[in-house]
Design a protein that fits this description.
Elements: E1 8-18, E2 22-28, H1 30-35, E3 41-45, E4 59-62, E5 65-67, E6 82-88, H2 92-98, E7 105-112, E8 125-131, H3 136-144, E9 151-158, H4 174-181, E10 184-190, E11 198-199, H5 202-212, E12 220-225, H6 228-240, E13 245-248, E14 264-268, E15 274-278, H7 279-282, E16 285-287
Parallel strand pairs: 8-9, 8-12, 9-10, 10-11, 12-13
Antiparallel strand pairs: 1-2, 1-7, 2-6, 3-4, 3-7, 5-6, 13-16, 14-15
Helix pairs in contact: 5-6
Bound molecules: flavin-adenine dinucleotide and FE2/S2 (inorganic) cluster.
FE2/S2 (inorganic) cluster is lined by residues 253-256, 258-263, 278, 280.
């Protein structure tokens, strides 16, 4: 289990974007950001008085990007000045975070959990598949492979166009813009009919892209984050093609540090035997084969 970092009560917000449905915060935390790897998460709570009543729990969010002092994606480790989170505004916790302003402090714990080991060999090609707000950690995954010769694909699934953020600073599509900036090829699917878009789920789009993709299979990798059903379907697509697949589980998490056991998910040990996984400390990033998908529904 990774050591639990000490909480910090006053991590400064350097920048905020929101369109009322989604939010993005840039947080000034260079030391924590330099330790962070893709797949890890932070727990955040806005101070009292910023929003509707919220309970005492910090809320978990995937790390979205390494940020430099100008608020751009950090181009190299020496330029890391903080990290960004991207979130859907759902209830009191996320409403309070979206109400923060530049210079406000936030209660911060992280980085938490297990993510990608940056020293592991880079694949020749990676398919980063994000469903809904599960797309948040995928930009970080691409950013962490910036120096590798890896062909990087972001496959992002929404239901309808209103599921895309419309941040004031990114008029022509935030994820499209960021994927391009990070050297990732961008593919978007929508379940409801949208002109010029692939109609269907991001998993169906992944299947189509894999069919059309030239080259062998052994050096591709799939990584997925989103609703459980979407990750299960992605794991199946990868398994059918003998592709390694990792998923980032977003179970309900209260403490984020392995104490409360609210995040336990049915899984398998190394020998295939049934065993529960504490997703906040053993994950959120897990080999898809470790999850007992048949028990998840
Ligand atoms: C590892 C991880 C990474 C995540 N990454 C992102 C991300 O990058 N972007 C994003 O938009 N969302 C992410 N989520 C989901 C996000 O944490 C929830 O949407 C958020 O906690 C909702 O809080 P709320 O108060 O606004 O909503 P509410 O629905 O009002 O919350 C009600 C109560 O449920 C609890 N609760 C709700 N969802 C969760 C949850 N997932 N885990 C624990 N408690 C919960 C809250 O503590 C609160 O007490 C992630 C969740 C996990 C576990
Ligand atoms: S969230 Fe408490 S043990 Fe995982």
């Amino acid at each position: 289990m990774p050591p639990t970092p000490a909480p910090r009560l006053n991590v400064k917000v350097r920048r905020k974007e929101t369109d009322g449905r989604f939010g993005q915060l840039h947080l000034e935390c260079p030391d924590e950001a330099r330790r962070a790897v893709p797949g890890q998460f932070v727990q955040l709570r806005a101070p009292e008085g910023r929003a509707p009543q919220q309970n005492l729990l910090r809320r978990p969010f995937s790390i979205h990007l390494w940020i430099d002092a100008n608020g751009d994606p950090a181009p190299s480790p020496e330029r890391i000045a903080g990290l960004a989170v991207y979130f859907k505004i759902i209830g009191p916790g996320t409403q309070a975070l979206a109400a923060l302003e530049q210079g406000d402090g936030v209660d911060f714990l992280g980085p938490l959990g297990v993510g990608r080991d940056l020293s592991e060999p880079a694949p020749d090609r990676v398919w980063c598949v994000g469903g809904g707000y599960g797309v948040a950690p995928m930009l970080f995954w691409g950013q962490s492979l910036a120096d590798a010769a890896t062909e990087k694909h972001l496959v992002y699934g929404i239901n309808q166009l209103s599921d895309l953020p419309a941040f004031p600073s990114f008029s022509d599509g935030y994820f499209h813009y960021m994927a391009k900036a990070l050297g990732m090829q961008f593919h978007l699917s929508a379940v409801h009919l949208v002109r010029d878009l692939f109609v269907g789920t991001c998993v169906a789009l992944l299947e189509k892209l894999l069919e059309a993709a030239p080259g062998g299979v052994g050096r591709d990798e799939v990584v997925a984050c989103g609703p459980m059903g979407m990750m299960k379907a992605t794991a199946l697509v990868a398994w059918q093609r003998h592709l390694p697949c990792r998923v980032m589980l977003e179970e309900m998490m209260a403490c984020g540090t392995g104490v409360c056991r609210s995040c336990v998910c049915p899984g398998r040990g190394e020998d295939g035997s049934a065993r529960n996984i504490t997703t906040c400390t053993e994950g959120p990033l897990l080999d898809a084969a470790r999850v007992a998908w048949d028990e998840i529904g």
